Amino acid sequence: MAKFELIKAELDKLGSKMLKAFANELINQGHKATGSLINSFRKDILLNPSGFRLVFWCNEYGLFLEKKRQAGKYVPIAPLMRWVAQKGIASSNKEVRSIAFAISRAIYLEGIPTTGRRTPKGKGSFAHSSVGRRTAWISHTAKTNKDLIKTSVSKAFKNQINTSITNYIRNTNKNLA
Q1: Per residue in 66-75, pLDDT tens?
Q2: Which has more pLDDT, 113 or 102?
Q3: Per-residue pLDDT, 1
Q4: DSSP label at 2?
Q5: What is the mean pLDDT of residues 95-111?
Q6: Residue 169 class from Cβ within 10 Å (0-12 exposed, 13-18 middle, 19+ buried)?
Q7: Could you tell me the pTM of the whole model?
Q8: What is the end-to-end Cα distance of the chain in Å, rounded?
Q9: Which of 101, 99, 97, 125 has its CA nearest to residue 111?
Q10: Strands (E) located in the chain
């Protein structure tokens, strides 16, 4: 087997498991409207002089959902209008625009996630979450899967080292014979 293939294979398995865990966390937080964010997920295994790096990619919107957005800044209306239309919240263009403006105003006043302190039910965006979180989908998933990550990385390097040593001994014995 080529050099480091066992490490790459194990990191690839880990990456696939983490992508599923990221998707589940987003869904549990109530962030799946069209699935475009989850469908944008990608992973790469990079080899550099200091070792391996398992890198995850997603569209830019995912970073907004990881961090909070402070109040005092309006969100552009066009993406909100697309979201309102995709969710089927309103039917006419006038209603879609009106709802998008209301959402942008709520974000301006409360930030993201919205708390709902200005709504009758008082839940804001948290009404869509089954886990009580609306941010930190990346960091929470990484923290929750810390043991899986440690075990997978340890297994990858252990297997690679064992295979390398076995191959070295086998080749040395061939050369001595």
Answers
A1: 988 888 988 8
A2: 102
A3: 47
A4: -
A5: 91
A6: exposed
A7: 0.80
A8: 23
A9: 125
A10: 42-48, 51-57
Question: Encoding tokens for residue 78?
Answer: 């066009």
Opening angle at CA 98, ends 123 and 128, nearest 5: 25
Neighbours of 23 (CB within 10 A): 19
What is the tens place of the pLDDT at every residue in 153-169? 999 999 889 998 998 99
Q: Is 143 exposed, middle or buried (0-12, 13-18, 19+ CB in 10 A)?
A: exposed
- Residue written as token pair 């076995």: 166
The DSSP secondary-structure symbol of 74 reads P
Q: Is 121 helix (H, G, I), strand (E, B) or coil?
A: coil
Domain ranges of the chain: 5-68+112-176
CA 108, CA 76: separation in Å to the nearest integer? 11
Helix (H, G, I), strand (E, B) or coil at 91: coil
The backbone torsions φ and ψ at residue 42, rounded to the nearest 5 degrees and listed phi first, read: -145, 160
Q: Are 65 and 135 in contact (CB under 8 A)?
A: yes
The Cβ-side half-sphere exposure at 103, using a 13 Å CA radius, reads 20
Name, in order, each residue with C-beta under 8 angstroms of 106's C-beta and a sequence gap of 6 or more: 114, 118, 124
